[in-house]
Write a structure and sequence with these properties.
- 40% of the residues lie in helices and 17% in strands.
- Strands 3, 4, 5, 6, 7, 8, 9 and 10 form an eight-stranded mixed beta sheet that branches.
- It is an alpha/beta fold.
- The protein is elongated and about 85 Å long.
- Helix 7 links the parallel strand 7 and strand 8.
Length: 595
């Protein structure tokens, strides 16, 4: 179609950007007859059964972007038919008339709660949201503009895949858009991908799955090959929930499944975390009491732990001085921590776990899931939070407290996907200049057959390899058991601390006794030789600080222990503030070189 003819259609349609909605729409799941107004007020979700209707692009923008702030880009593009496919122009004309869009994606820039961002929204009503030349070109141009203006990007993906009528030219858009994403990422800029129903084919295998953070709507279909193609190929019926958002999160490809009503709040918070003027380099006495003003996030995204509700320690005093640290060591020395008692305390049911410390020391924690390769290991939790107003990445090995939690978290024994998840979050932290705090608590890496099949040794080795060169501060705190390489994989820190009754060892006392004496029953004898206590490891130069436990690390002592950790953390960040990224990296390497 000539550009002038299209302009007339466009000008006519922009007076009424969306075709009028029918008065009643049936729910595809429960059959309820719903009014357009009722659907709009309920975020296009069936109030009867919770079915998610697909949302037109401009309606989506109205839900997410601040009113009056969106500036659309490339709203007019001349049609292309690279293969001279019969009747393709007529199909495009019909789609344009039906949707009042010139293509299957709307691109532009706007604000979300005041945070400027490039926002793109796919629309499945336009040839099933398929990606042809114009879609790929609009996405690439938008990323290029975002890179030039140093703006984050948010894409609401929805697509049936590549556009068949454009053949190989459609396929090439996958490479073009991916390159644009890479250049944007290399500039240190944030990209959030939001996957909606359906996200399949070439869009899934390119820009949709390349976000720094990948969110999804509940039950959205997400996959490369569609269910029908898979069933026809393997001649089997697919299980319930296969390729849905929750399936993808479980298998490591989605960070969070977020309900539609919560999405603007989550996006706003994520943009704020990546748009902060505060950073660890500017840490000072004047600003280190600053606290986050972000309101609580929706319960569907925040970890649901009761102790996380506004229980930050009330007393936040100045950091420990060197004299105070020596007093702490003297205090511990007088107690003469018994190795057997330390092992007992470190393993004790009811001992504080990583989620307890995350909840009390940090604000606005958003847990991010998955390793982007295979799975989401519950033994390791991690995500983004704020510490005194500064964005940080927090990662913890968590063995759970209740019997059900302990089983779900595999007793804190991580599999390869857990270590790969932690490394993904660490590399993300480095990209966005966030300090990393790790809470170590594991009897060791999971020794099962599946872990070996998935490359347990390689996963741990990769963590050690990459952590050695991270250019942001890394603090590791051993809060319970520090078992073998499974613990070290999160403990390549600029400093490593231990709670007074924590342990850190080459392997379990039982394993040590089995190897040395071929008799696991001699574990009590072994532990006295292994030097596993905080005091012994401090004297060996393996750790920098010991966190006092005047009372065992259980629920009643959480606030007191958190106050001590908090004081030490402030001092640690102050000590890092004057160092360049290279000096941070070199200090960490020197630390281990001298052991």
């Amino acid at each position: 179609m000539p550009i002038n003819a299209f302009r007339k259609i466009f000008e006519k349609n922009t007076k009424n950007p969306e075709p009028p909605e029918v008065e009643k729409r049936p729910c595809k799941k429960c059959g309820a007859s719903l009014s357009a107004q009722e659907l709009k007020e309920n975020y296009y979700i069936c109030p009867q059964c919770g079915y998610y209707f697909r949302v037109p692009a401009r309606r989506r923008l109205d839900m997410i972007v601040d009113a009056g702030t969106y500036e659309e880009w490339d709203s007019e593009m001349e049609q292309v038919n690279p293969l001279d496919y019969p009747e393709y122009e007529e199909k495009l004309n019909e789609a344009q008339a039906k949707t009042s869009l010139n293509e299957a994606i709307v691109t532009g820039v706007g604000k979300i709660d005041g945070h400027a961002s490039v926002v793109m929204v796919c629309d499945c009503r336009f040839l099933m949201g398929s990606m042809g030349y114009n879609v790929g070109e609009k996405v690439a141009r938008a990323f290029e503009r975002a890179t030039e203006r140093r703006l984050p990007v948010i894409i609401y993906a929805a697509s049936g895949g590549a556009r068949m009528q454009e053949g190989i030219i459609s396929l090439m858009q996958m490479a073009k858009t991916s390159a644009a994403v890479k250049n944007h990422s290399d500039a240190g800029l944030l990209y959030i991908s939001v996957l909606t129903d359906p996200t399949t084919g070439g869009v899934t295998a390119s820009f949709a799955m390349l976000g720094d953070i990948i969110l999804s709507e509940p039950k959205a279909l997400i996959g490369f090959a569609g269910p029908r193609v898979i069933e026809q190929t393997i001649r089997q019926k697919l299980p319930e929930g296969f390729q849905r958002a929750e399936f993808q999160q479980k298998h490591g490809f989605v960070d969070c499944v977020v309900e539609r009503k919560d999405q603007k709040a989550i996006l706003s918070h994520l943009l704020a975390l990546h748009d902060s003027d505060q950073s660890w380099q500017t840490w000072s006495e004047e600003n280190n009491l600053h606290t986050s003003s972000t309101e609580s996030l929706p319960k569907t995204v925040m970890r649901q732990i009761e102790s996380w509700k506004d229980n930050t320690p009330k007393s936040r005093q100045a950091p420990f001085s060197g004299i105070m640290r020596q007093k702490t060591l003297n205090k511990i020395a007088k107690r003469h921590t018994d190795p057997l008692e330390a092992v007992h305390q470190a393993r004790k049911t009811g001992r504080l776990v990583a989620s307890d410390y995350i909840g009390i020391l940090f604000k606005d924690f958003i847990e991010l899931h998955g390793d982007r390769y295979f799975g989401d290991d519950a033994a390791i939790i991690g995500g983004i939070a704020t510490y005194c107003g500064v964005p940080v990445t927090v990662i913890g090995q968590d063995r759970g407290k209740t019997a059900e939690e302990t089983v779900a978290r595999n007793f804190g024994m991580a599999s390869p996907d857990g270590y790969r998840k932690s490394l993904r979050l660490m590399k993300q932290a480095e990209k966005f200049n966030r300090p990393i705090i790790c809470f170590v608590d594991t009897p060791g890496a999971y020794p099962g057959m599946e872990a070996e099949e998935q490359g347990q040794g390689e996963a741990i080795a990769r963590n050690l390899y990459e952590m050695s060169t991270l250019k942001v501060p890394v603090l590791s705190i051993i809060i319970g058991q520090g078992g073998s390489g499974g613990a070290l994989a999160l403990a390549v820190g600029n400093e490593v601390w231990m709670l007074e009754n924590a342990t850190y060892s080459i392997l379990s006392p039982e394993g040590f006794a089995s190897i040395i004496w071929k008799d696991a029953s001699r574990a009590d004898e072994a532990v006295k030789l292994m030097k596993v206590t905080a005091q012994e490891l401090y004297e060996l130069g393996v750790i920098e600080r010991i966190i006092c436990e005047d009372e065992p690390a259980e629920e009643e002592s959480l606030e007191e222990i958190a106050k001590i950790i908090d004081k030490h953390m402030r001092e640690f960040f102050h000590s890092c503030a004057d160092k360049t990224p290279e000096e941070i990296m070199q200090q960490r390497q020197k630390r281990f070189r001298e052991i």
